[in-house]
Write a structure and sequence with these properties.
233 residues, mainly alpha, CAAX prenyl protease 2/Lysostaphin resistance protein A-like domain-containing protein, Rce1/LyrA-like_dom, CAAX_protease, transmembrane, transmembrane helix
């Protein structure tokens, strides 16, 4: 066993026992949901006339909550960010991530077209659309908060911690299970299905590369294209 561990270390891999598990999953979900609920309550106090401020606070808050969740989960037992997917990957996987981000953006039109054929619900993207149409500066700030900070934070939590830990139990748990959790925390609306799609793509990439960065690229490209699209409505 000692020789096997030495061989794993020589190859730069993370031993199975040094990867996140259920303590990290439960801690991450508990802290993330608590933080997001508190953030949501605060955002609800901001009037509709300040929708641009509200949505940007949400993006910044999501990023900060996610970072706090990641570092707390890491500090529990493992204390090694490489074990949470913070490792370099080949350039080709980053390019694959960019291509999948574009594909996911196209896919969301298919998902939403089918969904809204059967279900009618209030527009839950109104704040994003308002901010995206608020001029060049407003759109630029929104890209930073909603298309960079939010994807970074969410990938650190949902792929770096949750998908990573669930990968112990195979592809179905690591990819589909983590994508389902990712979808549900976005609420029971059309975004659940969009998030589930992105979660599947990023879960596969994480399982293939053991790195969070290809999924971060997918998420940034996907969110950016959506925000740019909102700016044209």
């Amino acid at each position: 066993m000692d020789e096997q561990k030495k061989h794993i270390r020589r190859r730069g891999e993370i031993p199975e026992e040094a990867r996140p598990g259920w303590p990290e999953i439960l801690t991450a979900l508990g802290l993330y949901l608590t933080g997001i609920i508190m953030l949501g309550i605060w955002m609800m106090q901001i009037p509709d006339e300040k929708a641009i401020l509200r949505i940007n606070i949400g993006g910044i808050g999501n990023g900060l909550v996610s970072l706090a969740v990641l570092f707390t989960a890491c500090a529990l037992r493992v204390r090694n960010l490489r074990a949470f997917g913070f490792r370099m990957t080949e350039r080709k996987w980053l390019l694959v991530g960019a291509a999948l981000g574009i594909a996911a953006f196209i896919g969301c039109f298919v998902i939403e077209g089918v969904y809204f054929h059967f279900i009618t619900e209030p527009n839950n993207q109104a704040d994003f659309q308002t901010a995206a149409k608020g001029g060049a500066l407003s759109l630029f700030v929104l890209i930073i908060t909603g298309a960079i900070l939010t994807p970074l934070g969410e990938e650190f939590v949902f792929r770096g911690v949750i998908a990573n830990a669930l990968n112990r139990y195979g592809a179905w748990a690591g990819v589909v299970g983590s994508a389902a959790i990712f979808g549900i925390v976005h609420g029971f609306n059309v975004i659940l299905f969009d998030a589930f799609m992105v979660g599947i793509l990023n879960g596969i990439l994480f399982r293939k590369t053991k790195s969070v960065w290809p999924g971060v690229v997918v998420h940034i490209v996907y969110n950016s294209l959506n925000l740019l699209y909102y700016s044209t409505l």
